[in-house]
Structure formats: structure tokens, C-alpha cells
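User: Predict structure, ligand adenosine-5'-diphosphate.
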Amino acid sequence: MAIKRSSDNPEPPKQTRKKTSIKQSNYEVTLLSPQANTQESEQNEDKIRPQKLADYIGQKKLKGILQMAIAAAKEREDPLDHLLLYGPPGLGKTTMSLILAAEMGVDCKITSAPALERPRDITGLLVSLKPGDIIFIDEIHRLNRMTEELLYPAMEDFRLDVTIGKGQTAKTRSIPLPPFTLVGATTKAGALSSPLRDRFGIIQRLRFYELDELTLIVKRTAEILNAAITETGAIEIARRSRGTPRIANRLLRRVRDYVQVERVETITEELAATAMNLFDVDAQGLDWTDRLVLNTIIEQFHGGPVGLEAIAAATGEDRKTIEEVYEPYLLQNGYLSRTHRGRTVTAKTYRHLGYAPQEPEAKQTELW
Ligand code: ADP
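Assistant: Predicted complex:
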């Protein structure tokens, strides 16, 4: 199986905005960000990515459905149905696509919507396919309209409709394509246009991982990296990983660095905790920005409800970063709730950040 990455128009690495009020290094920000935004982290990930469905930990329902789809497609000697995977970054969408290619014995070409800016980007990719190949398009909700429209007949009838010439002399030619599978990945299934969404035969959501699953992932990665770790050491890292394998692996690497510098051989619970506290990742996996967002809602907005714009303005964070990177985990884990009037912190947040629990009546009085 070959992995190919389209490097046309690579998106510039996302920059995290500098805080003005409190000093913070970018290092801490990227540590808990579920996005993979450097080439170095991409290469590192390739080494530890599971290669077979059996090594892919967790996501039982998804694995069951895909196992069946693979068996059926192989029996019919057809390519797999087009597949849409949605869910927060770092949960294993790219990994699953590569595993599917390996299981089907075909190549997987990896690209992302921002790299498919011009029509020739997608047409070039499609005409280079061999029968059964998989194209993985990350952030598929960001495709531009022209590219999306080229994909419709390609996905449905394995046909590329290209227009040659301009104005009245323009002609449309159809080029047959080999049968292929498109795997689309998105963090926002709702942002996909319905004609595109309807062309996927399988639509599956990836969930945040449970503690026991993440512990297995940490132990597996530690073995690949030749790092000795105790069971409780692995649990400690898993607990702070925000339900996300990419973060678990990244935290493990940083803890390993710490242990190495300290000249200790095995990662224990205590060492892991000390290292992660040093990196400002707290016992529940919240980092500096999470705490800034939650503290701001409590201190400046009486615990909410408050709109995203106001939170962004008060914290100096980018609105999209809050919405896409920080908020999903805070919502999923009951630190934030979202109502039509805005975001509100919960009793759990008050407890976690060491505030006195908020009485509903007291809050009411304060308002008046
Ligand atoms: P996504 O495409 O959803 O952003 P990736 O597929 O790139 O996420 O996964 C990020 C990293 O997490 C990979 O390097 C891989 O090693 C690890 N990973 C993801 N899912 C699993 C899993 N189910 N089991 C083991 N490791 C996983």
C-alpha cells in the first residue's frame, strides 16, 4: 500500500494568536490541540499509526460496519462504498482510511479540501487513480463549489465531466474513471452540502475514546517507541488526553522526554503527573486556554449564558479556535453547556476550578 500526500497548495500551519495579558508559550497550546499541524508531527504519526483493523483500538461500531463493508466489497470484487467520517480531529479518521486501503490491498491518496483549490487539482488526482484506489479528502466541508461539482459524477458514475473551450464554443467531454472510493473526513458534518452528503454510502461518526481504550493506545505507542511505562502511568496520560488518541500520543512523547532528562527508566504515574503539570495540563486534561475560557465566563459573565463572540473578545482567543478546538471537549465533558442564549458553565466547572458552587437564587439576585 502506498501513501501519497498531495502537496499542492498546502495550507500554512495554523498560528495560535499570542495572548497579551498573560504570557504563554505556543508549545503549551499545540500540546493539547487535536490538530496535526506540522510536517514533523505528521511523520511521527506515520510511525505509530495502526496498520490493520485489528490494531485499531475502540470505535467498535464503526469497525463492525466497515469490517462488513470490506468483506462484502471483496466478495463482489467492487470498490468500497464512498465513506464519510465525521468527528473532532485526532480521533482516527485518516488512520481508518489508510487501514481500509491496506485491507482492500489498494493505494490511498491523502489530500485536504484547501489543497484542491483549482479544478485541475481534483481532476489530476482522479485521472491518476487505479481501480479500487481510495482518495482521502480531509476537511471535506471546505471544498469549493467547482471542485464539489466535479466530484458528483465522479462519485456517482465514475465519470469526469470537463468543459473544453469558453463561451459558445465550449464543449463538455466525459472521461471515464476507474471505480474508486472517496473517504471524506470532516469535523462538521452539518456544513456539507446535501448533494455531496447524499453521495456517501456510509456515514459514520467517530466518538471520543474511553479511558480504557486510550490507556491501551498509550501502552501500544510506548511499546513502539521503546518507552517503559507502568499501567498507572499509562492511565495517568490517558486521563489527561481529552478522549483523543493524537493527544495521548503527543503527551506520551513529552512525558518520555521529561523522564529521559530526569534519567529515570520507567514512566510511573507520579512522574507522568509531574511532567504533565509542568506542561500545564491539569488532572482532567484541561490546559491554560480551557481554564482561561471557563474562568472568563465565570468572572466576567457570571457563569453565562454568553455568546461565543463575547468570549472570544474577552479572552483574546480566536472565535473559530474556541469553537472547533476547545469547546467540543468542554461540552462533551460537562464543563460547558450550550443554550440558544449562549454558553454557560456548569457546577462541575465551579468545582474543578475551585470556586464556591453557585446557588441559582444568588445568581438571580446578582442580576438585579
Ligand atoms: P484524524 O484523521 O481523525 O485527525 P488520525 O487518524 O490522524 O486522526 O489519528 C491521529 C493519531 O492517533 C494517529 O497517529 C494514530 O496513531 C492515533 N490513533 C487514532 N485512532 C487510533 C486508534 N483507534 N487506535 C490506535 N491509535 C489511533
